[in-house]
Amino acid sequence: MSIASMTGFAREAGVTGAYQWAWELKTVNGRGLEVRVRTPSGLDAMGEEARGQIIKALTRGQGQLNLSLNKASSAPKLRVNQDVLQSLLSALNGLSLPDNVKPASLDGLLAVRGVVELDDDADDPGQNEALGAALRAGIGALIESLKAARLKEGQALSAVLGQQLDLISRLVDEAEAAPARQPEAIRARLEAQIAELFEGKHALDPARLHQEAVLIAARADIREELDRLRAHVDAARGLLQEGGPVGRRLDFLAQEFGREANTLCAKANDVSLSRIGLELKAVIEQFREQVQNVE
What does pTM read for this prediction? Predict the structure, then answer.
């Protein structure tokens, strides 16, 4: 299983009867899971149903779900108001027309206001059911498309994190092999500093000098930090191989990486170790930023 990114976008659209519809879902980084929904008036229940499906499918991230719905334009439907027409005919039948006046024709009757009306009541229950089914199928396909997009980005993210872990491991090895960590090197630096300070007028007892060098080396020992950094690298690699929603655990490891790197820099007793420590901090910060994208 691969890790997934919290960033993704998906769109599903279709035509059902006289309606054109489109679902759009966008997710970005978030500490928890939150999904906002925007639907046309009258489809609030459908939006909440879709929101519930998304929450079941995802673990972390901030999402925005939008539904657009447009009714295709068509020729207007007309209907004859039979009640008005019958009333009009009854009134005409009760009239006695002069000889020079012709009876009303059908087209004349239909031209009377209220006889012919636009049929606005064209809602077809069957069509509404078909639209609901299409929208539900669309949200299912939308979620699968979003998950695929997040997994694809997660694969690229996993490769980047793996490279950063390799770099952290290499810097830990460099710190381990640094000659400046050896008591003999510390003793030589201490002896040189004392000689420069006293300009060769006094000489410390070699045994005392060695003892001081050992004490300084003990205070500056970074063995525990290096061991913990290696353990964190192994744990992070294990999480990347495990896959799934491991973002929170990777974030915790990133914090632990930073803590050990800070301690290493504080204990550094040589320019070379300080350089390695600073490089470590830079790589760890990049690792932490990338981890913020992991679900």
Answer: 0.71
